[in-house]
Protein 1
Amino acid sequence: MDKKRRSFLKKSAVGASAVAATSMFPSIWIKNSSLAYAAKGEVKVGVLFSLTGTTGIIEESLNKATIMAIEEINDSGGINGMKIVPVVEDPASDPATFAAKARKLVLNDKCVSVFGSYTSASRKAVLPVFEKRENLYWYPTLYEGRECSKNVIYTGAVPNQQQDEFVPWLVEKFGKRWYLIGSNYIYPKEENNYCKKLLEGLGCEVVAEEYVPLGHSEFASVVNKFKSLKPNVIFSTVVGDSVVALHRQYRAGGLDPETMPMASLTTSENEVAAMGGDAAAGHFTSAPYFMVWDSPENQKFVEAYRKRWGEDKVTHFVSEPSYFQVYMFKQAVEKLDPSDIAPDTIREATKGVEMVAPQGPVKIDPATLHTYLWPKIGVCKSDGQFEILQQSSEWLEPVPYKAYPNQQCTEEGLKEV
Amino acid sequence: MDPTAIMSQLITGLSIASILLLVALGLAIIYGSTGVINLAHGEFVMLGAYSAWALQTFFSLNLFQSLFFIFVLTALLGWIIERVVIRHLYARPLDTILATWGIGVISIQAIRLSAGGELRYVEMPSQLASSVSFLGVDVSAFRIFILIFSAALFILTWYLMFKTSFGVKLRAITQNPEVASSFGINSDRIFGLTFAYGAGLAGLAGALISPLKSVYPEMGTPYVIDAFFVVVLGGVESLMGTVFSAIILGELTSFISFQSNDTIAKALVLLAIVILIRFRPQGLFSSKVRG
């Protein structure tokens, strides 16, 4: 109640200042005040993915998927006749630059939404900008959960979506002794927190939990530990270039995925190409999307992507949400009267939006602004592609605080239960 | 720890040490004899790895076939860089840090622009892809190969330094450039060849580790740091010191990471180096080369 009153006061203050502005300044200034979000039959959005720096390569593919979706929408008539105009910025893989560019997109360019970020660090860096300016950020990456912002639409998976079916499946197939290994930062730790909860419920034993430095490439001792502890499953949240070194040294050490497979939430077609099919074959990944997924929507997506950006390009489980979230944005804006288009009205209109994405039908959860997704389990083949073994029987609800039962993300914000 | 685990970690330590030695040897030669702090050393390692990738992708050469070309290629590049940039800076050792760092940045961006920034794949020779039993422990055959190869390279380098006239001249220049040149030694030429040899060794190191590790433009940075640890701990001008410090660091890393994990191992090894340097600033082995 209190919050409502405050936002009412704020709105009327803005209104009052807009009136003041109209009377005090020449008309050119009005453009930036009230009706600016959908002026001249255009809707401006920001596209904030790094094109240079350490994560530049992967984020470039997210930029490409986003741009392609925008072009497709504009070519087929736009949003109620309005064109989407992308403002592309390169934050250079640096969280501080992310924040600066986000501020520019929101304040100077008056974008009504921004699509962006791959790493959690960059999302955390821009979050204050979107919360303070009441704007809307669309985040396509799978991440560690534990966030409940009213200014972010999350279209990637959270831990419960990737693990709820994956972990019991692995336990049944391979056994109860688990080795958890990850890179040393927040994402692997949160995923492992949740994994340990699931394993506890299934009566499993965690024989080791360890974290290696980011960028680590010497896994000789780790491989020895695999050999001496003989786990049934190696649950890996090692990321980036370290994934490649880990797989290659596992293979060179003579270990066998038949009896001791690595199960990963982050190994995609990209990493497999760099480690070689022989080092990747037999290991498992859980994700809502794989490039080989057989559906008319995915076929269309992959074909369009290769036609637009090059025949050798791959689509993966972060570029797919980057693509479909633009269509969700379109659906939300379509519902609005042009004069009502603003970040907060778009957010309200996004709640409950449904569409058929390349991975299957997806929906925005009104309470958490996360997305209902279709997790799949894939095994890597020696040709470097995945074979999909299983898909969940229904779309899985996103529960960003599932590892923390006393906290809950609701429409009113985070609640302690 | 049971005896097999101890044995297995000893061998793992040797394997880590052999990779460290491989990467540090080139740096030790350049730093020890010319006094140039070559911050682009990691980028020579990276260029070696990319050469292996390019020769495999465009000329279908396997790793063994390409080693010779990689050595020649990176050595030539090192020689050119010495001729064009480094030799103007021998009197200004601090400036070499900046110059070589700049060369490193240029190399990274050149690779990014030409070969692309994505991770690259270098195939492991199929004969060495399996694991073998060595002293009762299962070890990767490729790691054994690296161990033997870097030992051989070390012996070759030692022979070059102490048993050939090139080595005598190089050591003479290192001890006293003026006196050496008054005896008719062409220090310009000797330094150029030394730099080329060091760069070639780094290129070989990059090629040899590429099937075990990841190949990407920024891969050199961690290696140059490791190489400096080895050289500084071993004593800057001592070749033997380089070997022993590589073994000490390899075994320390191996045992600590087995007992706890790699993050702790990294921190503790660094701490050990800091403490050792505090009490022996000249490194474990003091110089026999420089007077």
Note: Residues 3-34 of chain B form the longest helix (32 residues).
Protein 2
Amino acid sequence: MSKTMEPDLQSPLGLPRGEPVRAEWKHPSDHWLRGFVLDNRASLGTLGVFIVMMAVFMIANPTVFTTWYLYSSVLTTLPVALFVVVPLVFVVTCGEIDLSFPATMGFASWVFALVVQAGYDPFLGIAAAIVTGTLLGFLVGSLVVYGGLSSLIATLGMNFLLRGLIQIINEGKSMALTGLADSWAYKIFSSQVWGIPVQIFWAIGFVVLSALLYNRHRFGAQVRVVGDNPDSAQQMGIDVKRVRVKVFVFVGIGAAIAGTFSVMINFTWWPTAGDGYLLPVLASVFVGGTPTWGGIGTVVGGAIGAVTVSFIQTGVVAAGLSGFYVQFFNGLIIILSLLGHKWNQARYR
Amino acid sequence: MAERIIELRDISKSYGQVYALGGVNLSVDRGEVVGLIGDNGAGKSTLIKILSGVVKPTSGEILVRGKPVTGWSAARSRDAGIETVFQDRALAVQQTIVRNIFMGRELTSWLGWLKVGKEIEEASRLMREIGFTSKVFTPHSIVGQLSGGERQGVAIARAIYKQAELIILDEPTTALSLTETAKVFHFVRQVRASGRSILFIGHNIHHVFDIADRFVVLDRGKVALTADRSEVKSAEDLINFMEDVAHPGGLAGLHDAGDAERAAR
């Protein structure tokens, strides 16, 4: 068996400086670049897929890809996806899946719309939406964990159930929030700075914070261990059920933010808000290099996966192909990415 | 006399009508390696579970450092400095060595952020302490890349953290090759050298004979023999004794003897 070196790459933060003790762990070929590549092979692979895909599109139609509008439109919608892709990486790492986030997006943004329409400040609406998302996440998580249900089926059921509730109560009617454009909340969360949609900065901040949470926080460490070997985690004193519920709560919070952002982009809340995100978001997680079996995953990879997936549709059309090609390319990219990750990552048992 | 870490007095455990243990006396002193041997169903696992607090005895007394304890539990067992390395090792194989050592007791600072540097430092120290060093892997190596013996090393390193005084090793050499077994023995000797005690449970009598200072043979829920190393000349003595216990009439069935031989090899 060849023992692949996993060199120390826990960045300067993690290195006890000037510790002679560490010397015996050093490997002659312990070069920082090699370590970086090995530690981040999944996300680097995803980045590679994205670059190749963009290169193909650009060669097909170079002029369109030099216009800023194309990127601006992607940067407006991409943040919405990022706020759910990232928490889903946690869920999948934990060995579960959550298909209820589209309804949570709809439900939380509905609460946001109600608060704003009632004349309250949108900040209050955002707070109310996040509380709603947290509660729904807790509800879904408790149902799966304490009810002992399969997360695949139970969250699918919750998605229908919550969406159904929204439809029954609203009878399909949407809500226009015209006053939103004058609010401070809109300026802070949904305007443009130097022509760049401001949402993307919030989303990047969220991705960075979540990546730290995943790699350098007790929460992320326990999520990975629980996904890897729940029995061991239990034996070592980790409250496995609690950790599992927490990841669903995290998705609820992310979905609430995502739903609110999508309403702020459109100034309108639709009873279908969030519905279209189910498949692209799921695809992003796996295109990003998080495997289905749990225990490992990559937040940054998931984010790059989301960028890739959101550029497929824009890219296919911009490259001069008809809209009929979009689905085909979606599928092609997903399959190629999975094959790439399979070759790239070894599974340890 | 060395300090007595733990003593079990007249411990019984019954599951309904079935007696798993019927009045067992067992003690472990500081710095000694006790080998616990017994056939399948002799009550070894029940005894380990009682020591680690997972199972409560039906009757009997538990003394920690000479003082009787009440309300014995897994938490109390850990507080008393007893750590158990279970047979399946309880490792998360896709995680790094550091993450496994600090599983469930992450070193954190403000708001739960990991003290990554401190964890690496501590992990290195623990691994050095049991002589678990190599140029090939670091505390960041994935456990899945390690061999069986090395994985056992990670489990032992995890157990000696938090100043454990008694480490229970449940069949640590099962399914390991000769060199891997040698590695585990190396770790065990290092642990003893650091002044800790070990309760070594094994099927393989040769393995137990090689490592233990004292032997306890368990048979059908009772202690059949307690012997110091000086009293036992060879592993064969132990095997013969166990066969005598199992088949008092001297009629050690050929089949069973064969089994014991194979197990011993």
Note: Chain A touches chain B through 43 residues (CB under 8 Å).
